Amino acid sequence: MRVLLVRPSLNKKTTTVRNFMFGEPIGIECVSTILKELKHNVLLVDLLVEKERKFIKYLKDFKPDVVGFTSQCTDIDNILYLANKVKEFNKDIKVIVGGIQATISPEAYFNKNVDYIFKSTTRDNYKKLMEQIKNGTNEEIEGIYSRRRQYQVSLPSCQNEYVKPDRESTLKYRKYYKYVGYSPCAVLQTSWGCRNHCKFCVRWRIEGAKVIELPINEVVNDIKKIKEPYIMIIDNDFLINEKRLLKFLDLIEKKKINKKYIVYGSVNSILEKEHIFERFSRDGLKAVIVGYESFDDTQLKKWNKAATVDENYEATQILRRNNIAVWGSFILHPDFTKEDFKKLIKYNKRLSPELLTFSPLVPHPLTPLYKEYKDRLIYDVEDYEKWNFGDVLIYPSNMSLRRYYWEILKFGIPVNLRWYSIKYMLREFPLKNTLRIAFGFNQSIKVYLKNIFSKK
Fold first, then answer.
1. N or C: which end of the chain has fewer CB within 10 A?
2. Does the pLDDT value for residue 262 go beyond 70?
3. Closest CA to 373 of 389, 395, 388
């Protein structure tokens, strides 16, 4: 069969994602691998790169039997719009939706134009589905919701299976993929799950509470085949296993692999392995993304963070001494006072990460925070585009919502316009990428100003 795989265009209400993290669509690259193993004819289209109006042309030219979409929370409206276009073009084309939002909230796609929703993806359930579509049968398949079965399921859901991504499927788009300012940049995942069970985090609840790692030989062989000079490793904490990390460094040195890496790393992993970072820096580690989250030890403990504010600082200094940039992040609590915002500014000055991101607290329904803040929610869970890590979701307790947005703006402008960060970006990134990041932040300012002056 002919299968068209699609990453949808950016939701216009989401203004900054493309300017910062415009990575390759690794999820549908994995689906492409499965379908090609099953001998189907696959075409992957990235509408983040191409104009959405070309979508109909692909339907006409490729004549797919199946169209599959990958989804994030802000993609739902766009996917349902495109699914409608598919059915208008040819009602017999089967429409499939997968991706993180389908896993978390499959009900978001219970729609007359969506035939199948993947809560989890494996070689086996894709094989069974494609056979079912070919033969016109209607039996239940583990991990898949079917419109013909009224989206009712009785089988327990399965776990996602590791599949090596088909990077050839995105060959014509790869020069556009970037992570923050590094481009072109590939994406690589080498482990699933997390030992750090933070109260606000959804990811470990989806992937599992234990870390499952790919053999490091396999990882390094994959890296050797990647053509991009930069690689973003999206493991929850790539620095967690010292033995594995040392073997990784041994292998990339032995094979003389010359790449630059950005990784996620916990404060504890950094503190435990101070002796490794001089070598890792020589072997290409450019930046570590560190979740500081708060300036207050009591709050860190409530969120089940394993580090203290002083340990955050110590970890930052370890990386800085080894010429590794820190990309920090904070969560803005809905109970902040004006004094708390001042403390956050002061703490950030103490840390001085090269780059900083921040977002209002997201009480995701899969976390205990949802029950805690359910009565204070500004938007319903079904207002999917608002759950974007930019909009405030919880009514503040110590100031008006308008004032809270104003305090965010007062915090965000000096943080993002620090000369220290600007110099770092100009030194590390091409000028056009630095300007793109600046444009993205300006778009955020517009959103906050709109919320401040909104009549609502």
1. C
2. yes
3. 395
| Euclidean distance between CA atoms 109 and 106, whole angstroms | 6
Give the contacts of 358 (CB within 8 A, at least 6 positions apart): 329, 330, 331, 332, 408, 411, 412, 415
The pTM (predicted TM-score) of the whole model is 0.93
Q: Name the maximum alpha-carbon separation found in the chain.
A: 65
Averaged pLDDT score across all residues of the chain? 91
User: Which residue has 């289209």 as its token pair?
Assistant: 45
SS3 (DSSP) at 437? helix
Residue type, 314: E
387 vs 393: CA distance, rounded Å:
7
Region 258-272: mean pLDDT is 96
CA nearest neighbour of 407 among 315, 455, 353, 335: 335
DSSP for 381-424 reads TT-GGG-SSSS--B--SSS-HHHHHHHHHHHHHHHHT-HHHHHH
Q: In this structure, which amino acid lies at residue 368?
A: P
Judge whether residue 317 has pLDDT over 80.
Answer: yes
How far is the C-alpha of 433 from the C-alpha of 436, rounded, in Å?
Answer: 5
Tokens at 26, concatenated = 């690794």
Q: What is the pLDDT of residues 7-31, one digit of tens each?
A: 998 766 554 455 566 889 999 999 9
Q: How far is the C-alpha of 193 from the C-alpha of 37, rounded, in Å?
A: 27
* Integer Cα distance of 316 and 288 in angstroms: 9
SS3 70: strand
What are 124-162's pLDDT values in tens digits?
999 999 999 999 999 999 999 999 999 999 888 778 888
304 conformational bin, left if phi > 0, alpha if psi -120 to 50, beta if neither:
left
Q: Name the nearest CA neighbour of 197 among 185, 207, 212, 209.
A: 209
d(CA 245, CA 248): 5
Please report, for residues 23, 59, 169, 188, the alpha-carbon distance to residue 29 in angstroms, rounded to integers and kept in the order given: 12, 19, 7, 12
What residues contact 195, with CB distance under 8 A and at least 6 apart?
209, 210, 211, 237, 240
What CA dihedral angle connects 250, 251, 257 and 263, to 10 degrees?
A: -80
For the chain, what percentages of helix, strand and coil (3-state, to nearest 5) are there?
45, 15, 35
d(CA 48, CA 4): 15
The H-or-E segment that residue 61 falls in is helix 54-62
